[in-house]
Specification:
Strand content: 25-35%
Order of helices and strands: HEEEEHEHEHEHEHEHEHEHEH
Structural class: alpha/beta
Helix content: 25-40%
Largest sheet: 8 strands, mixed
Radius of gyration: 18 Å
Strand order of the largest sheet: 7-6-5-8-9-11-10-12
Number of helices: 10
Number of strands: 12
């Protein structure tokens, strides 16, 4: 009890860091309950949470779900080659380094000013094999050798919206090229009623991968509120029973849709191409209140 109060007092004594970056105003806000943990916000929208003392701790709901995908992408502890499209505060790259030592990772984050801020204030473990490229996500993906990655994670937002050129079949062709035949693709998607963007993304990924699963809050799937959904894809069978169990046991339980139910949920949506792609919808202001 006393240690908890001391932790909160110590965190309260640490001031937030504010700095303009290419994408807007970045804020690093200390977590009052964890001594060396921070939340990154861009123009008031939460982007990442990092605990420097415990990089395996994932606070955000969608990051926990991506963490489950990472955990199940290979046998426990085995090093992987991972690509992170969208860096934020490098939360998931830190998670992979902590849970799968000796992994080789590439983070592609276009906002060079943000990368500098995070490196300075929340430095990466110098022993981690994490390379950061400050280029557009699709450009960085194109530089990867064929069949290099075990895992590609897309978590790219500009002004709280996923850019249009990262939502198309042509983008997914680059993802497939960079992945090993056994590789896994996971994307953090954000949408609200009527869920047209989410349905379109399911159809788009289904046009390029044989196996799909969607993890989301049931209220989001019912179109009751705006929120995040994690779409997972591979050409090999996904670990659906364990993914379902983990999502259901989260602090905010998630539901896993797959197979016929996921096809029905897509509702006949057409795959998105570069010519038809648009950015994901902007969240309503109430989401961040």
């Amino acid at each position: 009890m006393g240690r908890s109060r001391n932790t909160r007092r110590a965190a309260a004594a640490v001031t937030a860091v504010e700095e303009p970056v290419d994408g807007g105003l970045a804020q690093l806000v200390p977590d009052p309950d964890r001594a060396r943990a921070w939340t990154l916000l861009i123009d008031g929208a939460p982007q990442s949470h990092v605990d420097l003392d415990d990089p395996a701790y994932l606070s955000f709901e969608y990051q926990r779900r991506l963490g489950h995908v990472i955990d199940l992408a290979a046998p426990p502890g085995r090093p992987v080659q991972a690509v992170h499209l969208g860096g934020g505060a490098f939360t998931l790259a830190r998670y992979v380094a902590a849970t799968r030592p000796r992994s080789t990772q590439q983070v592609v984050e276009r906002d060079a000013s943000l990368v500098q801020l995070v490196r300075r204030e929340l430095p990466l473990d110098p022993g981690a094999r994490i390379r950061v490229r400050s280029v557009d996500a699709r450009e960085g993906l194109a530089k990867l050798p064929d069949g290099w990655a075990d895992l590609v994670i897309a978590d790219v937002f500009s002004g709280a919206r996923t850019p249009a050129h990262l939502t198309s079949t042509e983008f997914l062709d680059e993802v497939r090229r960079a992945l090993k035949p056994s590789g896994v693709y996971a994307a953090n998607l954000a949408d609200g009623p009527p869920l047209a963007h989410l349905r379109g993304q399911i159809a788009t990924v289904a046009a390029r991968f044989g196996e799909l699963a969607l993890i989301a809050d049931p209220a989001v799937l019912r179109g009751k509120r705006f929120g995040n959904a994690v779409l997972v894809a591979s050409d090999l069978p996904l670990p659906l029973p364990e993914l379902t169990r983990r999502a259901a046991s989260d602090p905010h339980p998630g539901r896993v849709e797959h197979g016929r139910q996921l096809v029905d949920f897509a509702g006949g949506a057409a795959p998105v191409t570069d010519d038809s792609a648009v950015a994901s919808p902007a969240p309503p202001p109430s989401v961040f209140r």
